[in-house]
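Each field is set out underneath.
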Amino acid sequence: MSRRVKLLSMNPTNEPPPPRHPRDFLDSTAGYADAFFQRLFVNRVDYDSTSWDETVREVEKTLGGNAAKVLSEPALEKAESDVRNLLADIPPDEGFHKKWAADSLLARFSYLACRLVKPEVAVESGVAYGVSSAFILAAMEENGWGRLHSVDLRPLRRNTRRFHAIAVPEKSKERWSFHPGSSRRILPKLFSEIGGGEIDFFLHDSLHTLRNMRFEFDEIWPRLRSGGLIVADDVERNGAFGELKKKEPSLWRVVRDRETHPLHGNKAPVTFGVVVK
């Protein structure tokens, strides 16, 4: 079976990609401007960091539970296998740039965090292929409850839109809500829609600029329950993640390590942040 046929078979309804909204272009343009400004004026930050193994032990100690048991669960193994096969079947000239997909350590940690925190409400910014979404939803399936709210810009290119959130399994979509648009526009409205209650888990993997990350953390922190957890990718790009340390969380760590079993491509260095309120 050809790769193209296999990809089409992943979407048995063969639904067309969702149409663009006029605000999509404006949100994307604002994002590009923000990223350009950061390249010119915002310095990267060399945070003190810990390894994956050390951070897992500290999170286990803070939240309780058995991390080793969770990381050996068949549901996690299946999520990894499904995503790895899916990404391998996407031709390099189609879809998003593969580097936009969550790396293996961030995805695994998201699964672990959701199994330990057992969130009723989880929110993520950034979707692309839906890799992190798939791992969070797999954890929720194991927990037996929870809902994931994902916020992301709809891709402008029609061919790319066909691959948006393609990793999210059909069986998990009853637990999943997608909110199209920039986090700056969507997050305040989202909290009103979900009743203004507390959230248990937040994953930042959208625009990694000081302005955007600071906005997202400022929106999330007051609504994050005590013992709730934030995971943020690529925190070294600016100082926004360091500002969370001033709020005196139960745990604040920056993970810097290297993949051993990547979901795509070659083994690569990985950096992400972890905060427990």
